[in-house]
Amino acid sequence: MTTHVEFKNVAKTFDGHTNVVEDINLQIPRGEFLTLLGPSGSGKTTCLMMLAGFESPTEGEILVDGKSVQDVPAHRRAFGIVFQSYALFPHMSVAKNLAFPLEVRGIETSRRNELVDRALKLVQLEGFGSRKPNQLSGGQQQRVAIARALVYEPELVLMDEPLGALDRQLREEMQYEIRRIQEEVGVTMIYVTHDQGEAMVLSDRIAVFEAGKIKQLAAPITLYEEPDDPFVASFIGENNRLFGTVTHVGEALCTVDVDGHTIQAAQVAEDTSPGDKVVVVIRPERVSILQSDHSLSNSQEATVLSITFVGDHLRVQLDTCGNPDFIAKIPNIAGHGSVLKGDKVNIGWATLDCRALPIR
Amino acid sequence: MNTLFWRTVKGAIGVFTAFGFLFLIGPLFVIVPLSFNAEPYFTFRPEMLMLDPEAFSLRWYENLFNDEEWHRALFNSFFIGICATILATTLGTLAAISLNQSNFPARRTVMALLISPMVTPIVIVGVSVFFFYSQPFIGLAQTYLGIILSHAMLGAPFVVITVTATLAGFNQTLMHAASSLGANAWTRFRRVQLPLISPGVITGGLFAFATSFDEVVVVLFMGGLEQRTLPRQMWSGIREEINPTILAVATLLIIFAVLVLFTVEWLRARTAKQLQPQ
Lengths: 360, 278
Ligand SMILES: Nc1ncnc2c1ncn2[C@@H]1O[C@H](COP(=O)(O)OP(=O)(O)OP(=O)(O)O)[C@@H](O)[C@H]1O
Ligand SMILES: [Mg+2]
Prior knowledge:
The complex is a heterodimer.
Chain A: E1 3-13, E2 19-29, E3 33-37, H1 44-52, E4 59-64, E5 67-68, H2 74-77, E6 80-82, H3 94-104, H4 109-122, H5 138-150, E7 156-160, H6 168-185, E8 188-193, H7 196-202, E9 205-210, E10 213-218, H8 220-225, H9 230-235, E11 240-249, E12 253-258, E13 261-267, E14 277-282, E15 288-290, E16 298-309, E17 313-320, E18 323-331, E19 344-349, E20 354-358
Parallel strand pairs in A: 3-8, 3-9, 6-7, 7-8, 13-20
Antiparallel strand pairs in A: 1-2, 1-4, 4-5, 9-10, 11-12, 11-14, 12-13, 14-20, 15-19, 16-17, 16-19, 17-18
Helix pairs in contact in A: 3-4, 3-5
Chain B: H1 2-34, H2 46-49, H3 59-66, H4 68-99, H5 107-119, H6 122-133, H7 144-168, H8 173-180, H9 185-213, H10 217-222, H11 230-240, H12 245-274
Helix pairs in contact in B: 1-12, 3-12, 4-7, 4-9, 4-11, 5-7, 7-9, 8-9, 9-12
Bound molecules: adenosine-5'-triphosphate (ATP) and magnesium ion (MG).
């Protein structure tokens, strides 16, 4: 598959000394749905704006179809963009907003109306064409912004938190729509969100941002199952964290000493060596409470601090290995009632379900 | 004690305001009725005070439209006013837009320079413009162009200020959106920015027109017989042939000023509505 968009060592500073983003390296194949995911202020919008041509990188370069876009003005880049603040033209009706990119391209009136109608239908806003943007709800405005970015059929679409203002049901519908359109039209999509659920559902790959850097770039399932950075591990889904020191390194495994307890963990970084400080991460749903005769490669004593009934599972807060916030999710199946608050229990998990991530 | 103090202050402000109105608005109540005087005097005659219809007439208004000199003055005022307004509005708007770009070098200084005609005493403006424009290699004294340029200079600061004010409420992301949709700089300006800042542009233009329309000092210095405007004609009218035609002109100017004021106010309300959060 050919590379559509490429970021090469991109860095950006606004004030001349602190980098808002740095070391950004991305290769985005044509037709991919890539999500930039990260907390507020981590540089997602900045990356998008550089690609769109409204900011220029202080270092590095951005290539589209193998050519640097450094000297291409924004209006010649022809990407569809949904801005975080919608940016609908307040003096034009919805239909005029949608027709704007078509008029600019000199598309004749009848074809224009056809495309506008189709775009309105796509976002379920038929009949709203004559309204002004300030006569629409936030969610409706957001949908108009999406329609406007798609109406002229660009090959590359950039969306900056396009579903932020929608309620859950509409949001899920729109997620589905966006994904459907993206696959149907085959556009390359670069999507910004800070909602990890949304990122998981939509993306082919996710780039997790923290403080201006990409911490990990991988498919959703890889990010969840094999995070290789402590930030990613705690940002994507829930993870228990135990801080410790590596005592022994084996083949793809290592032994970690956590507060005097020995834990077997999957080794993540190639260059891990004894004495390294690491954080061991374990998903709560991979922790089981062991019956007396069972054992797993990792087995620890724990005290039950609290039990919360969530419906399909029980959320058990445990004190173990010096961490009083250790969570286990126990499936709601027959026999779970044997655990009570204050009990001393044995818990366990498989070596491969816990990863030792170096603290850099 | 405290309430007494504030009551006194309030009372004083009230009296002050009343005097303000008396001295500012009062003369209008004299001028307007007198412009309908049937006799060529500047005083109320007993018949007028008794509201005798015979004592009133429109003859000074008629005179205004029939007399050739007044006629020309009327034309000159509008011609010069409109040309100066177009110039001041165009240049002032463009200046305001570039001055509001954060990367404009020395914006405060340039802004101060552009605004300076507003605060320079008008006599000084008149004298300097006259000396400068009458240099042989410029030769713009006693020409329409010379007056139009001077008036444009006097009017432009209003445009710069009103447009700057509307630009403060203008969402720059809209320009980004327009360019992402394929619009070049000119289309972005014409289709997105101009319509949204138009209330500021029009308000500034109206002020620029009003400035030119009642400007007399520069015309005194720069204008020949040919270029006499209404205020200039009134000036010589007062000195040379005293008759109430001047009052008729004054009344028309007042009506005009009131119309301008209302338009500006209406535009302001409209902008406020358009900029209200979506
Ligand atoms: N024009 C600018 N001038 C100076 N600093 C800026 C500018 N734009 C963004 N920044 C800074 O860059 C950092 C990254 O901002 P950015 O908008 O890219 O974050 P984001 O990841 O999109 O956050 P959010 O999820 O809140 O939208 C922030 O610390 C922000 O303050
Ligand atoms: Mg953002």
